[in-house]
């Protein structure tokens, strides 16, 4: 999909999502569960310090999306157990109050600009989304 048409698709999807949400029609379960969006980004040139710095700059800009409650930008830890994956460049993890807030993030202009401005730097992105109770007893 061309970048321009992908961006238009994301914008339209966001508008459709927003149009479907109203205080009267919001499903209670969609507002109760904490939503975690965890992204692993693999640079095309993992040893290129300039590309790494540029992507890090973009991630710091992305952290300004207002629906994000907490964000963590990480690098692979110096751990070495057989179950640990360390081949990514950056880990981007952000917490949202609920899935609705995350859907707003997906179509927010800051997020769309991030994709447009920095996607040429990465070769692969893996996303793990999860939901769960806001408070565990």
UniProtKB/TrEMBL annotation:
InterPro entries membership: Dabb, Dimeric_a/b-barrel, TAT_signal
UniProt xrefs under Gene3D superfamilies: 3.30.70.100
Cross-referenced SMART domains: Dabb
Protein name: Stress-response A/B barrel domain-containing protein
Organism of this sequence: Dyadobacter arcticus
Residue stretches making up the Stress-response A/B barrel domain: 35-130
């Amino acid at each position: 999909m061309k970048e321009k048409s992908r961006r238009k698709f994301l914008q339209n999807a966001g508008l459709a999502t927003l149009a479907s949400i109203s205080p009267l029609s919001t499903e209670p379960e969609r507002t109760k569960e904490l939503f975690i969006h965890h992204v692993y980004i693999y640079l095309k040139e993992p040893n290129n310090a300039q590309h790494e710095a540029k992507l890090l700059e973009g991630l710091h800009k992305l952290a300004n999306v207002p629906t994000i409650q907490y964000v963590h930008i990480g690098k692979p830890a110096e751990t070495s157990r057989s179950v640990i994956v360390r081949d990514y460049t950056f880990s981007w993890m952000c917490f949202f109050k609920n899935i609705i807030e995350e859907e707003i993030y997906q179509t927010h202009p800051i997020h769309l600009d991030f994709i447009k401005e920095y996607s040429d730097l990465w070769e692969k992105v893996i996303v793990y989304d999860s939901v769960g109770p806001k408070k565990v007893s």
